[in-house]
Amino acid sequence: MQPKRHFSLAGKLTLLLFAAMCGAVVLGALLIDWFDNALLGASITLLLCAIVTPWIARRCLARQLSLFRALSGSVASFRDGDFSFSVARRSHDELDDLVEAHNELGRVLREERQSLFQRELLLDTVVQNTPTALLLIESRGAIVYGNVAARQLFHDGRKVEGLRFEQLMEHTPGPLREALGAGRDRLFSFEHAGQEETYHLARRDFQLNGRVHTLYMFKRLTAELNRQEVATWKKVIRVISHELNNSLAPITSLAHSGAELLRREDYEKLGRIFETIEERARHLHGFLRAYSSVAKLPVPELERVDWAPFLSRLQQHYAFTRGAIPGEAARFDPAQVEQALINVLKNAHESGSAVDEVVLSVRQLGRIVRVEVSDRGPGMSESVLANALVPFYSTKRTGSGLGLALAREIAEAHGGRIALANRDGGGLTVSLTLPVD
């Protein structure tokens, strides 16, 4: 409920001015009558008014002046981050709205600071206890922040803030220093606490308080990779067993049939038997060769490659419509990238798309180059998209599931990636992204 206002601020000032004028008139009349001289009386009256009026005004406005000083001091406290001040007021006039707004602002700022403090406390608790080791380095190389996992990984649980990053790295294992020197995200393994551990290193630069800082994130992946490794080996064994059985079972049966034909001296059918055995052996050889290409991918040998002649050679393997290409050359291993694109184009042709609707285009986006192969086949379902890059996964009856997996290995060996997405109106786009340098 709003308090009742007795006098407005304007009313108080009007009353003060009216009282001063009345007092001046009465005083002037008395002095003129006393001295019997109008000029002298008026002069003395003006002198007394000039002396007394400021004193009366100050006395009457003392509360307002005190309020203004209180408000000024409270605002200064707000500026310094102290929101505990509020202003009390006993008078009831227009300044009450200002005081109430000021006190409400202080209350809101106090609540916001308390909420912010609680969020910061929660964030600090989460960051300190996350299993990912975090190191924040400022531009001059000093460590600004390290959580519990970082202290355990690098400094035997001791505080790392204030140390030089180079000083901390002197006592770390070689694989870790090599990963940091690579300048990009990567996986690495080294012995820690008596056992082999695998970590993923991610590095991000950003501005903090107007200065460049670097955040290093070391995520321990040993347990997850072990589970994935076991699952992958099981799948590999199932796929290889399936392929071996598909070839060895008919070869065994045909060998037995050939022996029976020899025993009966029936040589006429032996030619067809040997042809079938040769075909199954060739298929098995091709499967093992494809598996070996994924398992033993060599380190890319980078060189400058012009796109026009490179794509012309690629068109000799599979036809496609050439889209836009950049005029600048790029650095990559031409043999490996060609093999990756051959695998992608092969899938595009096998999708049922018309040949003239298989389009290959190249776009340079800043420091990366993106090669896109698009078709107008049926596209992929969500489950197939999620597994298409997994080795040995295939929806084709005769597919090995290694084409896209090999393309993925080649892209990642170059520091890039591969992505699949369905197109509007039907079809699929496979994007191979490579760094420019």
Automatic annotation (TrEMBL):
Catalysed reaction(s) here are: ATP + protein L-histidine = ADP + protein N-phospho-L-histidine
Do you know which InterPro entries this protein is assigned to? BphY/WalK/GraS-like, HAMP_dom, HATPase_C_sf, HATPase_dom, His_kinase_dom, HisK_dim/P_sf, Sig_transdc_His_kin-like_C
Q: Which organism is it from?
A: Lysobacter panacisoli
Segments passing through the bilayer: 12-32, 38-57
The protein in question is named: histidine kinase
So which domain of life are we looking at? Answer: Bacteria
Gene3D superfamilies the UniProt entry points to: Histidine kinase-like ATPase, C-terminal domain
Where does this polypeptide localize? Membrane
Tell me the ranges covered by the Histidine kinase domain, including all copies: 239-437
Q: Which SMART domains match?
A: HATPase_c (SM00387)
